[in-house]
Design goal:
By secondary structure, this protein is an alpha/beta fold. The chain has nine helices and eleven strands. The relative contact order is 0.16.
Amino acid sequence: MHSKDLQIDWLRTFVAVVDTGSMTAAARQVSRSQSAVSMQLKKLEDSIGRPLLNREPRQLSLTPAGFDLLGHARRLLASHSTLVLAMHGGALSGRVSLGVPDDYAVPYLVPVLRHFAARFGEVEVTLVCEESTALLAKVDRGEIDLALVTRDAPSRGELLFREALVWAAAEQHEIWKRSPLPIAVHELGGRLRTEILAALEAQQREYRVVYNSPNVGGQIAAAQSGMAVAVLTRCSLPPTLKMLDARQGLPELPVIEVVLMRSRDSKGSRAVDTLYDEVVGSLKDPLCVERAK
Protein backbone atom coordinates (compact mmCIF):
# COMPACT_ATOMS: atom_id res chain seq x y z
CA MET A 1 0.00 0.00 0.00
CA HIS A 2 1.27 3.48 -0.92
CA SER A 3 1.77 6.01 1.84
CA LYS A 4 -0.57 8.99 1.48
CA ASP A 5 1.90 11.34 3.16
CA LEU A 6 3.19 14.15 0.92
CA GLN A 7 6.30 15.57 2.54
CA ILE A 8 7.05 19.24 2.00
CA ASP A 9 10.60 18.47 0.79
CA TRP A 10 9.25 16.17 -1.91
CA LEU A 11 6.89 18.88 -3.15
CA ARG A 12 9.65 21.49 -3.06
CA THR A 13 11.88 19.24 -5.16
CA PHE A 14 9.05 18.50 -7.61
CA VAL A 15 8.39 22.21 -8.15
CA ALA A 16 12.11 22.87 -8.55
CA VAL A 17 12.37 20.19 -11.26
CA VAL A 18 9.40 21.70 -13.13
CA ASP A 19 10.69 25.25 -12.83
CA THR A 20 14.27 24.48 -13.87
CA GLY A 21 13.46 21.83 -16.44
CA SER A 22 16.15 19.37 -15.35
CA MET A 23 17.18 17.17 -12.45
CA THR A 24 20.66 18.69 -12.42
CA ALA A 25 19.46 22.28 -12.15
CA ALA A 26 16.83 21.31 -9.57
CA ALA A 27 19.50 19.62 -7.45
CA ARG A 28 21.46 22.87 -7.35
CA GLN A 29 18.34 24.84 -6.44
CA VAL A 30 17.35 22.63 -3.50
CA SER A 31 20.97 21.97 -2.43
CA ARG A 32 20.78 18.20 -2.84
CA SER A 33 22.53 15.63 -4.99
CA GLN A 34 20.94 14.58 -8.26
CA SER A 35 20.41 11.07 -6.89
CA ALA A 36 18.61 12.54 -3.85
CA VAL A 37 16.34 14.56 -6.15
CA SER A 38 15.52 11.44 -8.16
CA MET A 39 14.78 9.51 -4.96
CA GLN A 40 12.46 12.23 -3.64
CA LEU A 41 10.55 12.32 -6.91
CA LYS A 42 10.18 8.55 -6.82
CA LYS A 43 8.85 8.69 -3.25
CA LEU A 44 6.39 11.41 -4.27
CA GLU A 45 5.18 9.41 -7.27
CA ASP A 46 4.88 6.28 -5.11
CA SER A 47 2.81 8.25 -2.63
CA ILE A 48 0.55 9.68 -5.37
CA GLY A 49 0.35 6.30 -7.08
CA ARG A 50 0.87 7.80 -10.55
CA PRO A 51 3.82 9.16 -12.56
CA LEU A 52 4.16 12.94 -12.40
CA LEU A 53 6.80 13.49 -15.10
CA ASN A 54 7.45 12.12 -18.56
CA ARG A 55 11.20 11.56 -18.63
CA GLU A 56 12.20 12.03 -22.25
CA PRO A 57 15.74 12.50 -23.60
CA ARG A 58 16.90 16.04 -22.71
CA GLN A 59 13.39 17.05 -21.68
CA LEU A 60 10.95 16.60 -18.83
CA SER A 61 7.24 17.17 -19.22
CA LEU A 62 4.31 16.93 -16.85
CA THR A 63 1.83 14.08 -16.92
CA PRO A 64 -1.86 14.89 -16.27
CA ALA A 65 -1.31 13.96 -12.61
CA GLY A 66 1.71 16.27 -12.55
CA PHE A 67 -0.37 19.17 -13.85
CA ASP A 68 -3.00 18.49 -11.19
CA LEU A 69 -0.40 18.40 -8.42
CA LEU A 70 1.66 21.43 -9.47
CA GLY A 71 -0.86 24.13 -8.59
CA HIS A 72 -1.61 22.51 -5.23
CA ALA A 73 2.11 22.15 -4.52
CA ARG A 74 2.82 25.82 -5.25
CA ARG A 75 0.02 26.96 -2.96
CA LEU A 76 1.09 24.60 -0.19
CA LEU A 77 4.72 25.79 -0.42
CA ALA A 78 3.55 29.41 -0.29
CA SER A 79 1.46 28.64 2.80
CA HIS A 80 4.39 26.81 4.37
CA SER A 81 6.62 29.85 3.79
CA THR A 82 3.98 32.04 5.39
CA LEU A 83 3.85 29.77 8.43
CA VAL A 84 7.63 29.72 8.81
CA LEU A 85 7.67 33.50 8.48
CA ALA A 86 5.01 33.89 11.15
CA MET A 87 6.63 31.45 13.57
CA HIS A 88 10.24 32.53 13.19
CA GLY A 89 10.31 35.93 11.59
CA GLY A 90 7.47 37.74 13.26
CA ALA A 91 4.54 39.42 11.54
CA LEU A 92 5.19 40.58 8.00
CA SER A 93 5.01 44.32 7.43
CA GLY A 94 6.39 46.91 5.04
CA ARG A 95 5.48 48.50 1.74
CA VAL A 96 5.37 47.11 -1.78
CA SER A 97 4.66 49.01 -5.01
CA LEU A 98 3.22 46.81 -7.75
CA GLY A 99 2.68 47.91 -11.35
CA VAL A 100 0.16 46.45 -13.79
CA PRO A 101 -1.50 47.50 -17.08
CA ASP A 102 -5.24 48.02 -16.73
CA ASP A 103 -6.17 45.01 -18.89
CA TYR A 104 -4.27 42.62 -16.59
CA ALA A 105 -5.39 44.16 -13.29
CA VAL A 106 -8.89 42.73 -12.83
CA PRO A 107 -8.61 39.24 -14.36
CA TYR A 108 -5.21 38.41 -12.90
CA LEU A 109 -4.20 40.56 -9.94
CA VAL A 110 -7.49 40.98 -8.07
CA PRO A 111 -7.61 37.34 -6.84
CA VAL A 112 -3.89 37.43 -5.95
CA LEU A 113 -4.13 40.68 -3.99
CA ARG A 114 -7.31 39.58 -2.21
CA HIS A 115 -5.56 36.44 -0.96
CA PHE A 116 -2.39 38.34 -0.06
CA ALA A 117 -4.26 41.06 1.86
CA ALA A 118 -6.20 38.46 3.86
CA ARG A 119 -2.94 36.94 5.14
CA PHE A 120 -0.66 39.97 5.32
CA GLY A 121 -2.84 42.87 6.34
CA GLU A 122 0.14 44.81 7.76
CA VAL A 123 1.81 45.08 4.34
CA GLU A 124 0.92 48.28 2.47
CA VAL A 125 0.54 47.52 -1.25
CA THR A 126 0.47 50.44 -3.68
CA LEU A 127 -0.89 49.63 -7.14
CA VAL A 128 0.48 51.58 -10.12
CA CYS A 129 -1.64 51.16 -13.26
CA GLU A 130 0.16 52.15 -16.47
CA GLU A 131 1.18 50.63 -19.80
CA SER A 132 3.89 47.97 -19.80
CA THR A 133 6.60 50.12 -21.39
CA ALA A 134 6.24 52.78 -18.68
CA LEU A 135 6.21 50.17 -15.89
CA LEU A 136 9.31 48.45 -17.23
CA ALA A 137 11.18 51.75 -17.14
CA LYS A 138 10.01 52.36 -13.55
CA VAL A 139 11.24 48.94 -12.45
CA ASP A 140 14.61 49.58 -14.09
CA ARG A 141 14.87 52.93 -12.26
CA GLY A 142 13.81 51.40 -8.94
CA GLU A 143 10.66 53.53 -8.74
CA ILE A 144 8.43 50.48 -8.21
CA ASP A 145 9.24 47.07 -6.72
CA LEU A 146 7.30 44.66 -8.93
CA ALA A 147 5.46 44.81 -12.25
CA LEU A 148 3.21 42.36 -14.09
CA VAL A 149 3.90 43.34 -17.69
CA THR A 150 4.19 42.29 -21.31
CA ARG A 151 7.74 41.03 -21.90
CA ASP A 152 9.78 43.42 -24.04
CA ALA A 153 12.86 41.26 -24.65
CA PRO A 154 13.67 37.52 -24.63
CA SER A 155 14.51 35.98 -21.25
CA ARG A 156 13.62 39.16 -19.35
CA GLY A 157 11.59 38.71 -16.16
CA GLU A 158 9.88 35.65 -14.72
CA LEU A 159 7.64 34.18 -17.44
CA LEU A 160 4.17 33.52 -16.01
CA PHE A 161 1.92 32.82 -18.98
CA ARG A 162 1.18 33.67 -22.59
CA GLU A 163 -1.73 35.87 -23.61
CA ALA A 164 -3.34 36.04 -27.05
CA LEU A 165 -3.98 39.31 -28.84
CA VAL A 166 -7.29 39.44 -30.72
CA TRP A 167 -9.10 41.65 -33.20
CA ALA A 168 -12.45 42.82 -31.82
CA ALA A 169 -15.38 44.91 -33.07
CA ALA A 170 -19.09 45.51 -32.56
CA GLU A 171 -20.77 42.95 -34.80
CA GLN A 172 -23.69 45.17 -35.83
CA HIS A 173 -21.43 47.82 -37.39
CA GLU A 174 -19.30 45.43 -39.51
CA ILE A 175 -16.52 47.99 -39.35
CA TRP A 176 -13.99 45.37 -40.57
CA LYS A 177 -15.45 45.72 -44.10
CA ARG A 178 -14.27 49.32 -44.45
CA SER A 179 -11.23 50.42 -46.42
CA PRO A 180 -8.99 51.76 -45.12
CA LEU A 181 -9.58 49.69 -42.00
CA PRO A 182 -9.94 51.93 -38.91
CA ILE A 183 -8.05 50.38 -35.99
CA ALA A 184 -7.72 51.19 -32.31
CA VAL A 185 -4.31 50.12 -31.05
CA HIS A 186 -3.39 49.95 -27.38
CA GLU A 187 0.09 51.14 -26.43
CA LEU A 188 1.69 47.73 -26.81
CA GLY A 189 5.36 48.65 -27.13
CA GLY A 190 7.33 49.34 -30.27
CA ARG A 191 7.97 45.73 -31.27
CA LEU A 192 4.37 44.52 -30.93
CA ARG A 193 2.91 47.59 -32.61
CA THR A 194 5.30 47.09 -35.51
CA GLU A 195 4.31 43.40 -35.80
CA ILE A 196 0.58 44.24 -35.84
CA LEU A 197 0.90 46.89 -38.53
CA ALA A 198 3.31 44.71 -40.54
CA ALA A 199 0.74 41.88 -40.53
CA LEU A 200 -1.82 44.21 -42.13
CA GLU A 201 0.70 45.48 -44.65
CA ALA A 202 1.66 41.91 -45.58
CA GLN A 203 -1.97 41.40 -46.60
CA GLN A 204 -1.84 44.68 -48.52
CA ARG A 205 -4.68 45.83 -46.29
CA GLU A 206 -5.03 49.59 -46.08
CA TYR A 207 -5.57 50.89 -42.55
CA ARG A 208 -5.61 54.03 -40.45
CA VAL A 209 -5.03 54.29 -36.70
CA VAL A 210 -7.97 56.18 -35.19
CA TYR A 211 -7.19 55.56 -31.51
CA ASN A 212 -3.78 55.21 -29.92
CA SER A 213 -3.65 55.30 -26.12
CA PRO A 214 -2.60 53.18 -23.13
CA ASN A 215 -6.19 53.30 -21.89
CA VAL A 216 -7.92 50.03 -22.73
CA GLY A 217 -11.32 51.39 -21.70
CA GLY A 218 -11.16 54.02 -24.42
CA GLN A 219 -10.07 51.40 -26.91
CA ILE A 220 -13.07 49.22 -26.06
CA ALA A 221 -15.37 52.26 -26.32
CA ALA A 222 -14.01 52.99 -29.81
CA ALA A 223 -14.82 49.43 -30.87
CA GLN A 224 -18.26 49.34 -29.22
CA SER A 225 -19.28 52.59 -30.90
CA GLY A 226 -18.44 51.25 -34.35
CA MET A 227 -15.56 53.67 -34.71
CA ALA A 228 -12.82 51.05 -35.13
CA VAL A 229 -11.60 47.47 -34.94
CA ALA A 230 -9.60 47.14 -31.73
CA VAL A 231 -6.55 45.05 -30.89
CA LEU A 232 -7.11 43.71 -27.35
CA THR A 233 -5.61 41.15 -25.04
CA ARG A 234 -7.91 38.13 -24.91
CA CYS A 235 -8.49 38.61 -21.16
CA SER A 236 -9.90 42.12 -21.72
CA LEU A 237 -12.39 41.21 -24.47
CA PRO A 238 -15.90 42.12 -23.26
CA PRO A 239 -18.95 40.06 -24.28
CA THR A 240 -20.29 43.06 -26.23
CA LEU A 241 -17.54 42.71 -28.84
CA LYS A 242 -17.07 40.04 -31.50
CA MET A 243 -13.67 38.39 -31.84
CA LEU A 244 -12.54 38.56 -35.46
CA ASP A 245 -10.13 36.40 -37.47
CA ALA A 246 -9.22 35.38 -41.02
CA ARG A 247 -12.90 34.96 -41.89
CA GLN A 248 -13.20 38.74 -41.66
CA GLY A 249 -10.00 39.17 -43.67
CA LEU A 250 -7.76 39.99 -40.71
CA PRO A 251 -4.26 38.58 -40.13
CA GLU A 252 -3.18 36.44 -37.20
CA LEU A 253 -1.86 38.45 -34.26
CA PRO A 254 1.20 37.68 -32.13
CA VAL A 255 0.93 35.97 -28.76
CA ILE A 256 2.51 38.00 -25.97
CA GLU A 257 4.44 36.79 -22.93
CA VAL A 258 3.42 38.11 -19.52
CA VAL A 259 6.22 38.32 -16.97
CA LEU A 260 6.83 39.47 -13.42
CA MET A 261 9.65 42.03 -13.10
CA ARG A 262 11.44 43.01 -9.92
CA SER A 263 13.66 45.99 -9.20
CA ARG A 264 17.21 45.49 -7.97
CA ASP A 265 16.58 47.92 -5.11
CA SER A 266 13.89 45.65 -3.64
CA LYS A 267 16.24 42.74 -2.98
CA GLY A 268 16.22 41.83 0.70
CA SER A 269 12.68 43.08 1.36
CA ARG A 270 10.64 40.32 3.02
CA ALA A 271 7.41 42.00 1.97
CA VAL A 272 8.46 42.11 -1.68
CA ASP A 273 9.78 38.54 -1.50
CA THR A 274 6.44 37.32 -0.20
CA LEU A 275 4.29 39.16 -2.74
CA TYR A 276 6.61 38.04 -5.54
CA ASP A 277 6.18 34.40 -4.47
CA GLU A 278 2.42 34.90 -4.19
CA VAL A 279 2.12 36.23 -7.76
CA VAL A 280 4.35 33.50 -9.22
CA GLY A 281 2.61 30.75 -7.26
CA SER A 282 -0.83 31.93 -8.33
CA LEU A 283 -0.25 32.88 -11.97
CA LYS A 284 2.61 30.79 -13.34
CA ASP A 285 1.32 28.43 -16.02
CA PRO A 286 3.27 25.13 -16.08
CA LEU A 287 3.12 25.18 -19.89
CA CYS A 288 5.23 28.35 -19.81
CA VAL A 289 8.14 26.89 -17.87
CA GLU A 290 11.24 27.89 -19.79
CA ARG A 291 13.63 25.05 -20.52
CA ALA A 292 16.48 27.01 -22.07
CA LYS A 293 18.88 25.81 -19.43
